[in-house]
Amino acid sequence: MAILPMKHISMIGLKKDRRAVLDVLQRCGTVQINDINRKDNAFYKYDVSSEKLLLEKQAAVVQEALEILDRHVPEKKPMLNVLNGKQELSRKRYEKLDGEQEEILETAKHIRELSDTISEYRAGMEKLQVQMDSLVPWSSLDLPLQFRGTKSVAAFIGSLTGEMSRDELLASLFDRLPAVDAVHLEIVSSTREQVCIVLLCLRRDAGPVENALRSMGFAYPSASVPTLPIRQMQEWKEKKDRLEKARDTAEEEIRDLSGQRDSLKGMLDCYAIRKEKADVAGRLLQSRHAFFLEGYIPARKADTAAAILNEQFDLLVEYEDPSGDADVPILLENNKFAEPVEGVLRSFSLPGKGEIDPTFLMAIFYYILFGLMLSDAGYGLLMVLGCGFCLRKYKNMEPGMQKTLRMFFFCGISTTFWGAMFGSWFGDVTKIVSTTFFHRTVSVPPLWFEPVNDPMQMLVFSMAVGVLHLFTGLGAKLVQCIRAKQYKDAVYDVLFWYLLVGGLIVVLLSSSQFAGMFGLNFVLPSVVGKAAGSIAAVAGAGIILTAGRESRNWFKRILKGLYGLYNVTGYLSDILSYSRLLALGLATGVIATVINQMGAMFGDSVMGAVLFAVVFLIGHALNMAINLLGAYVHTNRLSFVEFFGKFYEGGGKEFTPFAVHTKYFEIKEET
Amino acid sequence: MENMGVFFALLGAVLAAVMSGIGSARGVGMAGEAAAGVVTEDPSKFGKVLILQLLPGTQGIYGLLIAFITLTQIGILGGSSDVSLYKGLLYFIACLPMIFVGYWSAIRQARAAVASIAMVAKRPDQSGKAIIFPAMVETYAILALLISILAVTGIGSVNI
Known about the structure:
The complex is a heterodimer. Chain A is of the alpha+beta class. Among the domains of chain A are: 146-220, Alpha-Beta Plaits; 359-437 and 456-646, no CATH class. Chain A is built from 22 helices and 14 strands. Chain A has helices at residues 18-28, 49-72, 91-99, 101-135, 166-176, 206-215, 229-257, 261-281, 299-312, 342-348, 359-374, 377-393, 399-421, 429-438, 455-483, 487-509, 512-518, 526-546, 554-566, 568-577, 579-600, 606-647, and strands spanning 2-3, 6-14, 32-33, 44-45, 87-90, 153-161, 183-190, 194-202, 218-219, 285-286, 290-298, 315-320, 332-333, 665-668. In chain A, strands 2, 3, 4, 10, 11 and 12 form a 6-stranded antiparallel sheet that branches. A 4-stranded antiparallel sheet of chain A has the order 7-8-6-9, covered by helices on one side. In chain A, a hairpin with a 3-residue loop joins strand 10 (285-286) and strand 11. The radius of gyration of chain B is 19 Å and the shape is elongated. The longest helix of chain B has 38 residues, at 4-41. Helix content of chain B is 81%, strand content 0%. At the A-B interface, helix 10, helix 15, helix 21 and helix 22 of A face helix 3 and helix 5 of B.
């Protein structure tokens, strides 16, 4: 439960070792390397943009090849694949992969080419199919489509739009050509859209006949085919079959290459590693023969890192405590219990300068508040079992995922606890099932009390939890003040508030009117109340005098002090804000009860039991999902707004070490 | 006139569910439109914007809660539904906080959620903070829920 102390590290080495040193640093993964912005005549920065660009381009090729493989041979992914984590890859295998870069890149390019040719083949096949379709009406014609007649006979081969019989056609033709009488008409095929015809006439009549045909809407076929249509179609068909075969071969080849998927993925990881290295190389300074880098390293790892480097290279490593005003990156370390909440803390902000790591304090209340809001033992058990099972079964899971599951595991334990205290097991399922199906009432009694029957008691309890939470926050502020040796601030900003708020609460508790209102079964003696009242008054006066202490002008100072005292309303609203524990807890319980009652409406029969099971499953799944979300959001809110409001601002930068960050494989170092 | 008690109590219960339900439906709809836009651009943000979309949905649940508690109190869900006119009106009044605050807070919360969704679209690393802004609005729905619950459960023991 602490922020790890950091050392500022700087080193000078020989330029020829630069690559190797960076390699070692990346594998250690413990140093964050700063971008040095110092102008110098001897030292300059290395331009890595072209190297990065090349890497990005190559990575894009491999990425595309992977996508093509996925399209042709979808990868079989088991359920819950996200939990499996990354596959392991030994350092030796990785280095072998790194050496095979050229070949793998060639494979990727080959896959891309194959994919391109496949689309070409596809386009060709489609085109042929269209051409073949256009010849279908002509398939029974035993003349070439281009046939225009002999020396003395003219032939017209073409189509007319619309459906017409042979007689109708002849009639309308002779209408237009009173002078011509020798015409031979044959209908090749006829559909609703067009009639395909062959018309023969004497060569000398050709001119007028053509004009007449044109006026009827005659058109020559668009496909220019020198041979018989049927033969042409045969030819195209063969061509299309050849293309299809070629496409199948190419697809087969891609399928064969799917064995390379792992190499491709590994290669992508290689590129990612190299890109990070190039990125870091661009941050250091170098001269003709040397390079210089600086950054941060966790203090306890500094010795080992320096030893490793000194052993392998001729270089100078120095580390020292960072100067007071340096912006030191933050790395948190917590035990297994508190660590999971680090993610929630990070989503708010990491500790800023002079702030303590609030993770542990936050974690305790986080679990308690979450449990109070979900507060159903059934849902809690489901969470515990589900998360516990996944954590046990998938050891290799991503650290982030594992933390999240661990957080919900602890939240689940707390939920089960509070659910049992308040007697809620999937709402009142035992009572409903026993009365509906067994005609006896069996209910699980709460270990403490049922909030639905006694909301006032639950409200008081919620606010008590709130006061405890807020006072813990104030306590954290006290620790921060003492650490910074600001003892005056500790008294003025923390102690006075403890006394004021605490005193006022005791005054309330000693009034019988208040006790009656909230159904408390005890009243503090009035002497205690009076004493607490005077303490609160003194603390209030202290706040008026000191809250504006940065002002020299006494008039201003008192005004600011009064405004500071006004903050007591802030405490009131903070404490009231914890009433959401009651509201959300009731929401879970009451809706669960509604679901059970809806399920029981079908009565005591086999059908009724089946329907009950269906309603139970769907209803509780929905209720659990919605209330999990609610509990998560509002626990975050209580932590961020009410709790952190008392002592924590954040603003620290995260420690981002130069390390191996891969997507597909976890590279395992051999020891 | 004597039997009008149940009528007013039921009116309050139903309005609590209706108004909060309408508010939540509109709110979740608004946030859903914004969320769909973000997912079009970047499907990997689905989980983050889904949480934000669901935030204005809780008012509907609170309304249901008040409706249900009222229904059990006035005996509509079994038991005797013998409610005097005066008590019926009291139940109606007890439902008012949820009726009004449930509706308006859902819509205002949805507007905050839409803004937060835009924030997540641009700065996904800040999603923790983005959840807090809409959750601030929800406080008032919770306070209304609280008063309605306390009032509805308290009326049964009032002697009139």
